[in-house]
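job 3f2a | input accepted
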Amino acid sequence: MPIRTLRILGLALLVVVTRAGAADLDLRQIMADPDWIGPPVEAAWWQFDDDSYVYRAKRADSEIRDLFRIDPDSGEITRLEAAKRAAIDGSSPVFDRDRTRALSVRDGNLFLRNLADGGLKQLTAGLDGAGNPGFATDPNLVHFQVGVNWYRLDLTTGLHRPVADLRFDDAPHAVGDNALERHQLELFSTLERDRRRAAAAHDEAVANTAADPGRTPAPWYLGKGMEIAASALSADGRWLLAVVQKTGTDTGKNDKMPKFVTRSGYVEIEDVRTLVGRDASTPQQLWLLDLIDRDKHELDLKTLSGRDIDPLAELKAAQDITPHDAANPRPLRITGIEWHPQSNHAAVQVRAIDNKDRWTLRLEASEQKLSEIHRLTDPAWINWAFNEFGWVPDSERIWLLSEESGYSHLYTVDARGRIRQHSKGSFEVYDVAFSADGKQAWVLSNRAHPTEYDLYRLSLADNELTRLTELKGVESYALHPTRAAILVRYSDSYLPTQAAIVQASGELIAATDTRSDDYRAIEWQQPEFVAIPSSHVDEPIWTKFYPARGDHEGPRPVVVFVHGAGYTQNTHHRFPYYFREQMFHNLLSARGYHVIDMDYRASRGYGRDWRTAIYRQMGTPELEDLIDGVNWLVDNHNADPQRVGVYGGSYGGFMTFMAMFNAPEVFAAGAALRPVTDWVHYNHGYTSNILNTPQVDPDAHRRSSPIEFVEGLQGALLISHGMLDDNVFYKDSIRLAQRLIELEKENWELASYPLEPHGYIHPESWLDQYRRILKLFETTIGD
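job 3f2a | predicted structure (783 res):
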């Protein structure tokens, strides 16, 4: 009777269960609604009246989410009915400087918890969507945001009011530059008299607001043609940093998606996204608004280092496109703002729209002065992840994450601009939290092993990094504000996300187990984590290996699974996004197949160079890694090189095509699910980072698109695609099918699913799709 062990700082928690064999599981059960497994813990957060915690989980056979409260002493779990929900703290609380009070948002309203006596007070009602709460420098005031508007709430009186009435329009009483308007006012004294009266009323309203803060602010007209994309209010409520952009920007022509199976019985057409190169991000500006003196300062970003140099100048020259230069610097997006909690300083993060530079700036609001304190530049692209930053508590230092060393690490920059790196090595740190005194930070990291994610504590004085958990699959955490306890969410290969409290001693208490009895009773095949040598780079390709089981004779057939998204990690100890596929791999290994699941180059978790190896050549390094995986199995595990299959969805479907078309001598059968076939037809945000745009870099798109290589197909091919896919459009598979027809290719089929989006949602479709995949492998490479 196997024993499952959770280990944290040497403490073993033993859970003894009786199990059945995974080999007995049939395909229908594997592809059933995942409710049969048991719901994962989607979120968990502290409660400050009794130091318990609340977690959220999906209700079976429903889209409703239930809340449960778990007692830290007894471990008793209680589902919260509506009346009891009214007494809980919201998630993501914000604490005052002394950590005696906590602000949180629940059901769109703001709540205040007194941590000393546990009292909870509702501060707003009916505002519908309060967010971004924070304590002001005045301890009796708090700020929060609803939509684009900011509010100040007086904790003494309970009253709240907007801090500004910003209007992107011309003031009705102002005289513009329009010559015709000026002439009209000169000709008609009645019009001019009405204008003067409107101006006087506006000036009176401004004066009254300044004299009486209890009044509603007078309108502030900021002119036509712009709109607010984001904003952040200073702690004293005087300064508002506004990210603004032009209105009515042409984002290109939308594509169309037909719906054939509809309630109306008619074909319906839905507008979907535009294509790469036709929906570039709108350039943005940064305005500093003085809400007391009603002054607008357009902050100068022209002097950012390297902004006047176009990294794509050479490629643009080849296409006769004018590059950016000092006269026309690269356009920008403002990606983050963090005000200091006790001063009028702000940290701002800015990116070039080409995503090859990221700048971190310090603002002194009273002087309207921006200083560049850090620049991260990458000839490929700045990572989507690892862009956290903020203020080190109780200091004037700014902290940030950067991949400049090749891996995501923590840096601080003091008020004089001196930079210090606090973590180093061939591993990644992220999800940063600080102690109240700013002397320690907590991070998630895979320092111990690329596949193991645990919680670490980092001392900023000596840069010592201490591992706090040995769960290997920590997903998130929340520090308790007043005692030495941490709430973690964690998972394992066959354990959906759970929650538990980590005490100072390292003991793990009040742990959940939401698995169903049926799922818990199954004896799953644990993946072997193997380092497959690469024939192209020095680092190994970390891989999950499910070796063939049972009494099978002769060399074994191989199935290579290719994870989606490109930049994700699937060789890890957490519960996989591909949990159905993992169960399917159990079925395959029981039938005598070797199965490998590789973190090919482009995958997350292995640093900047691994991630960017695919720049301007998607499909090439990844295929080299997949072939290395096959060769490793042939050399070390009696695999049959003539019987190799490959499958995957989305990016995995794209790579299935690249394998079948460009290495037909290796891969005899493949199933491409919801696959990208031509990157020219994918979205802008993802594609333009890796391949630039097709206008600037057509060669990169041609060498990376499977539709250019269809002629190489020799083996058996299954294409599977949901017809309501608004991510990778169904037309991708239709266009490739037409190429197969024109090239007179045989042994291929297209399976279409009329009611499925990119991620299938109906068990019947999952079952049909995987029956086809299993049949493909059994009839081509199986025993």
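job 3f2a | The longest helix spans residues 189-211.
job 3f2a | closed
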